[in-house]
C-alpha cells in the first residue's frame, strides 16, 4: 500500500487533470451527516426518485453515518465554474449542469479507482447531483422493483451516490475542511461543487 502522502499527491494530479479546482485530505470525522439533508431531496428536488444515485435508492443518513466509522480519511474535491452556454432552463438544475456533473462523476471514478489500485481497497466515492451517466435513468423509464433495480443499472461500476443524497451535510463538511461555500442565489453566479472519496 502506498504512503498516504504519496497517494494524496497522485490523487491531486488526477483531480486537477480531470477539471477539479482543488483536492484536500481531510479526517473522516469532520464529515457531517444529518437527517434533514434528505428532506431537501424529497421535498424540493425534481430528481427525487428518478435516479439510482438519489433517494430513495441512495444510502440513508444512518447507513452513511455507520459507514463513515470504517474510515479515517477522505479527500474532498472542489469543482468551480459556470455551466456551459445552454438553452436549458436553469431551474432544471440536473440538465443545466449536465456537463459539470459528468466531469465530477468521471473524476471521482478515476480517484476512487486509483486509490483502490494503490492498496486502499476500501476507497469509496460520493458524487454531487443526480447521476448523468445515462440520458434517462431506469426509474424514469417506467415501473421498477425497488429492491432489484440497482442490479439493472447500466453503469454499476461507475455510478456512485451523491453526497447530499446520502445524508451528508455538504455545507458543514466543506466548511469544516476550510473551503468557502455559500448558497447560490442567482443563475449567473459561480457554482462550487464537491465530491468525496473515503480512504482507509
**Biggest sheet strand line-up:** 1-2-4-3
Distance between the termini: 11 Å
Helix and strand content put the structural class at alpha+beta
Largest sheet: 4 strands, antiparallel
Q: Low-confidence spans: pLDDT under 50, at least 5 residues?
A: none
Instruction: Give the number of helices.
Output: 6
Helix content: 25-40%
**What is the residue-mean pLDDT, rounded to a whole number?**
90
Instruction: List SSEs in N-to-C order.
Output: HEHHEHHEHE
Number of DSSP-assigned strands? 4
| DSSP strand content | 5-15%
Overall tally of structural domains: 1
Radius of gyration: 16 Å
What is the 3D form? globular
Structure description:
The protein is of the alpha+beta class and about 200 residues long. It has one domain. Helix content is about 30%, strand content about 15%. The protein has a four-stranded antiparallel beta sheet, with helices on one face. It is globular and about 45 Å long. The model has no long low-confidence stretch (mean pLDDT about 90).
Strands, helices and their partners?
Elements: H1 4-17, E1 22-27, H2 36-42, H3 61-68, E2 73-81, H4 93-96, H5 98-117, E3 124-126, H6 170-176, E4 191-199
Antiparallel strand pairs: 1-2, 2-4, 3-4
Helix pairs in contact: 1-5
Short account of what is shown:
By secondary structure, this protein is α+β, with helices and mostly antiparallel strands.
Question: Which terms summarize this structure?
Answer:
4-stranded antiparallel beta sheet; 4 strands; 200 residues; 14% strand
